[in-house]
Amino acid sequence: LTDITYFEPAEVGREIEQFDEIGSLESGKSMMDALSPVSGRYNLWPRETGL
After folding, report:
1. Range of the domain at 34
2. Is residue 18 included in any domain, yes or no?
3. What is the pTM of this model?
């Protein structure tokens, strides 16, 4: 997938398992799911972690 034109993230703050869908990527020619490489809580911005 090259020249990504759009990314739609999944719901922020939810618990995810490895290989769960965390969003979708779109390019001029195709669309595909973005999968998580690890398990944990999905936070879009680091400041939302409470650290």
Report:
1. 4-39
2. yes
3. 0.64
Average pLDDT over residues 15-40: 91
Q: Is the pLDDT of residue 6 over 70?
A: yes
Q: Establish if 24 belongs to a structural domain.
A: yes
Residue identified by tokens 């769960």 is: 20
Instruction: Give the β-pairing of 21-27 and 4-9.
Output: antiparallel
Question: Rounded distance, CA 24 to CA 5, Å?
Answer: 11
CB burial of 24-46 (b: ≥16 within 10 Å; e: otherwise) equals eeeeeeeeeeeebeeeeebeeee
DSSP calls for 1-51 = --SEEEEEE--TT-EE-TT-EEEEEEESS-EEEEE-SS-EE--SSGGGG--
